């Protein structure tokens, strides 16, 4: 009964697919390693979470500073000391600390005789562990601490069950660090109910990217409250609370936040509570816990709805494992080595961790206007955590391909937020907060992509009208410099000047960088134009389509003595000088050399501006290779490809449009085999809410999104002999066959689509939307004739 109750909300219709091969992966979940990306800057977390889940129960590590952590999102494989197991996390965000990490719960062996908040260097109330005693699986995490305590955690979507064990005959305490979110907190509250064996409370927090020096102080603010309710299977032997440095044994309530600063400005502030247990006869404690962003009653209802009263950690873990297996089976690969399968399915696992549920089981969720709302008619759930600047390039396409119903709910969620936010679509939404992080208008690109790929379960007309208004009607925030450069409040900053000059002026744009803003808005406008065309809105399509070409106004053909580059301009039309292709002046987290390639919507136009396709391809060669001809694809050189950040991650596929697709094939394969891998350092950089993982999934399949707002896909050599893409709830499948796929056969010799010869290096969007068969003949050497006809190049 327990397992049935857990599985009921997660059942979905099967998808039709071709008959499986003998070497097809039966249970993808067996090949997932949540520790991939947990070192080397990947900023993933290994704890227990479900696909798109609200709860993500994972360790918070410490290097000796209670106001900081060892990695942006709470866990670093290289740091084996923890101060608690927190209830919420965000996958791969780059700001340090990242976001969430709410309510760390710590099993402590010993007497609580001082305030844990006064332990500012985490010397007493933290514990070390070894990886030999750690096990991370999808939906399940357990670890044994050197103190003798252990934590065994499993979750449903909004709740979890934990077994905490302690040494026999030793003081056993469980600390609730209610105020100690990764970024701090405005306030926190805890209540301990000895009679009912319960601990409840909340934390009032937010402040994503609030410590970043480039405008982050504007984000040192509160925008959500997380409630929790924890019940235990046994009585408490002792209780107590603390506020700042004051310990109150026997007390059952406490309040107090930490603020949003760091180091000495925050150390020693905060509140929490503890409960103790008698370990003479029983050294194991079971805790059942629910969370909610709406209310305490919502947290308790979520727990009742999702986890049966007597469900064990093993029961919940089994249900969670099954839920992950169903989602991951949206792509079934055959063949390939175990490291290849592990890298692939872990990337898919990371890509499907977000967006995240923020609505309760009853449909209520916290609005961006600070009040509770209920999901719209036809909407299944409200989702959040939108790292738009990152995700619109790969992750949202994968979401639309594999989970179209979730994609539609997510689109509706973003529209709901915009309506609650005065019509403003924020580019980086965390829970119910508009954080303004990064640049551009990624919501436009995202929803246009969803619609192009066939997602329809959202108010498309209402969303388009709202996004069109944001792109055409100046908003007062667009003239504000608050939060600039990294968190500028204007979502179309300096729009009146942009529309007049047809570029974002570096000296008047109220943005991170004028050149970057122009490129981002050009991509967004081109995507909106294509969406308008599908909606039959010809006037808007023509207007926005022209604006999709505004990138030309920041391309200086004489930027250097030898080559043209994207370059920032002032309002009077002059170029911002001095100019250096390695500089990020006018750009956001990237150099001019990288951003010059960020015109995915008009590669032919970019090639023409560079002097033709051959010259553009030769320049692209220099972007991926050092002067001596050796590869340069690991990052660290501002003049060359950087796999760790988003502005240039589409660049390997540009060769397809330049008539040299074999170079896409060898470049993508070089990156896949040298930059990505298994183990904690298996990601090149921040996963950015699944973006880098989605890049890998597409690369392994031999497909990549051509441009935002489109369903067409660019082709390269697949990694696996076969893959069946069977979207959730859809009776269609796309089968990709590449019998000769191997490390020695990256090159495409021929392609067939639905059995017919296919002579272009791109795939029509109808195949992506409707399914079919795609067959590759692969070779061990380049075929310089396939897909090179100028008339058939991607446009």
List the topology elements:
Elements: H1 2-7, E1 48-49, E2 56-61, E3 81-86, E4 105-109, E5 127-137, E6 140-145, E7 150-155, E8 159-165, E9 172-176, E10 187-193, E11 198-206, E12 222-232, E13 238-243, E14 246-249, E15 253-255, E16 271-277, E17 284-292, H2 296-306, H3 313-328, E18 331-334, H4 338-351, E19 356-357, E20 364-366, E21 372-374, E22 383-384, E23 386-387, H5 388-391, H6 395-402, H7 404-420, E24 428-430, E25 433-434, H8 442-452, H9 460-472, H10 495-501, H11 514-534, H12 538-547, E26 555-556, E27 565-566, H13 592-595, H14 603-609, H15 613-624, H16 654-657, H17 661-674, H18 691-701, E28 703-705, E29 713-715, E30 722-725, E31 734-737, E32 747-753, E33 756-758, E34 762-763, H19 765-770, E35 772-779
Parallel strand pairs: 31-35
Antiparallel strand pairs: 1-2, 2-3, 3-5, 4-9, 5-6, 6-7, 7-8, 8-17, 9-16, 10-11, 10-15, 11-12, 12-17, 13-14, 13-16, 18-30, 19-22, 20-21, 23-24, 24-25, 26-27, 28-29, 29-34, 30-31, 32-33, 32-35
Question: Can you give a write-up of this model?
Answer:
This protein is α+β, with helices and mostly antiparallel strands. The protein contains 19 helices and 35 strands. It has a 12-stranded antiparallel sheet. Strands 18-30-31-35-32-33 form a 6-stranded mixed sheet. Strand 30 and strand 31 form a beta hairpin. Helix 8 packs antiparallel against helix 9, helix 8 runs parallel beside helix 11 and helix 9 runs antiparallel to helix 11. The longest helix is centred in the middle third of the chain and has 21 residues. The N terminus is likely disordered.
């Amino acid at each position: 009964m327990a397992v049935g109750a857990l599985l009921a909300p997660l059942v979905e219709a099967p998808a039709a697919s071709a008959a499986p091969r003998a070497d097809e992966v039966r249970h993808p979940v067996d090949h997932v390693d949540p520790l991939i990306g947990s070192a080397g800057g990947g900023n993933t977390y290994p704890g227990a979470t479900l696909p798109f889940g609200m709860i993500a129960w994972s360790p918070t590590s410490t290097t000796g500073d209670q106001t900081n952590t060892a990695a942006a999102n709470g866990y670093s494989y290289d740091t084996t000391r923890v101060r608690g197991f927190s209830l919420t996390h965000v996958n791969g965000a780059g700001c340090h600390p990242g976001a969430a990490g709410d309510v760390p719960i710590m099993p402590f062996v010993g007497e609580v005789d001082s305030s844990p908040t006064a332990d500012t260097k985490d010397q007493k109330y933290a514990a070390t562990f070894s990886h030999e005693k750690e096990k991370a699986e999808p939906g399940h995490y357990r670890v044994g601490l050197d103190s003798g305590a252990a934590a065994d955690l499993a979750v449903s979507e909004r709740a979890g069950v934990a077994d905490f064990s302690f040494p026999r005959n030793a003081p056993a305490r469980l600390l609730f660090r209610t105020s100690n979110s990764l970024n701090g907190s405005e306030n926190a509250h805890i209540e301990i109910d000895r009679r009912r064996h319960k601990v409840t409370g909340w934390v009032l927090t937010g402040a994503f990217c609030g410590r970043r020096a480039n405008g982050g102080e504007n984000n040192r603010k509160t925008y959500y409250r997380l409630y929790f309710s924890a019940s235990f299977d046994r009585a408490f032997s002792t209780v107590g609370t603390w506020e700042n440095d004051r310990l109150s044994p026997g007390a059952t309530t406490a309040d107090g936040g930490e603020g949003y600063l760091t180091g000495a400005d925050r150390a020693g502030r905060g509140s929490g509570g503890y409960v103790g247990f008698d370990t003479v006869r029983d050294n194991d404690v079971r805790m059942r816990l629910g969370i909610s962003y709406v209310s305490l009653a919502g947290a308790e209802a979520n727990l009742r709805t999702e986890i049966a009263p007597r469900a064990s950690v093993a029961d919940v873990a089994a249900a969670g494992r099954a839920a992950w297996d169903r989602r991951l089976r949206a792509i079934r690969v055959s063949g390939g080595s175990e490291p290849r399968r592990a890298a692939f399915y872990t990337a898919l696992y990371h890509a499907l961790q977000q967006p995240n549920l923020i609505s309760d089981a009853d449909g209520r969720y916290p609005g961006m206007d600070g009040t509770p709302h209920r999901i719209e008619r036809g909407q299944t759930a409200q989702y959040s955590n939108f790292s738009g600047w990152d995700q619109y390039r790969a992750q949202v396409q994968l979401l639309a391909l594999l989970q179209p119903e979730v994609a539609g709910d997510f689109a509706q969620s973003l529209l709901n937020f915009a309506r609650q936010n005065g019509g403003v679509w924020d580019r980086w939404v965390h829970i119910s907060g508009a954080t303004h992080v990064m640049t551009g208008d990624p919501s436009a690109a995202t929803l246009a992509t969803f619609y192009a790929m066939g997602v329809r379960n959202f108010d498309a007309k209402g969303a388009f009208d709202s996004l069109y208004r944001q792109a055409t009607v100046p908003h007062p925030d667009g003239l504000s410099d608050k939060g600039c450069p990294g968190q500028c409040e204007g979502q179309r900053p300096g729009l009146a000047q942009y529309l007049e000059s047809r570029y974002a002026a570096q000296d008047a744009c109220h943005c991170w960088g004028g050149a970057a803003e122009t490129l981002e808005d050009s991509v967004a406008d081109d995507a909106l134009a294509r969406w308008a065309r599908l909606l039959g809105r010809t006037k808007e399509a023509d207007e926005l389509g022209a604006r999709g070409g505004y990138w030309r106004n920041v391309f200086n053909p004489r930027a250097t003595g030898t080559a043209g580059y994207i370059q920032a301009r002032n309002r009077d039309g002059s170029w911002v000088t001095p100019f250096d292709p390695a500089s990020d002046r006018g750009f956001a987290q990237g150099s001019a050399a990288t951003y010059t390639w960020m015109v995915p919507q008009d590669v032919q136009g970019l090639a023409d501006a560079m002097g033709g396709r051959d010259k553009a391809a030769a320049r692209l060669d220099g972007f991926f290779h050092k002067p001596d001809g050796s590869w340069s694809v690991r990052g660290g050189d501002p003049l060359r490809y950087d796999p760790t950040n988003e502005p240039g991650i589409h660049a390997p596929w540009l060769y397809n449009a330049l008539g040299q697709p074999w170079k896409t094939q060898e470049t993508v394969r070089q990156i896949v085999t040298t930059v990505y891998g298994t183990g904690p350092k298996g990601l090149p950089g921040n996963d950015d809410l699944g973006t880098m993982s989605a890049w890998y999934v597409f690369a392994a399949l031999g497909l990549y999104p051509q441009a935002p707002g489109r369903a067409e896909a660019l082709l390269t050599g697949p990694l696996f002999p076969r893959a069946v893409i069977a979207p959730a709830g859809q009776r269609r499948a796309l089968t990709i066959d590449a019998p000769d796929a191997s490390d020695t056969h990256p090159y495409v010799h021929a392609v067939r689509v639905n059995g017919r010869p296919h002579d272009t290096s791109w795939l029509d969007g109808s195949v992506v939307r409707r399914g079919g068969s795609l067959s590759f003949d692969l070779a061990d050497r380049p075929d310089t004739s396939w897909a090179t006809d100028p008339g058939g190049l991607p446009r």
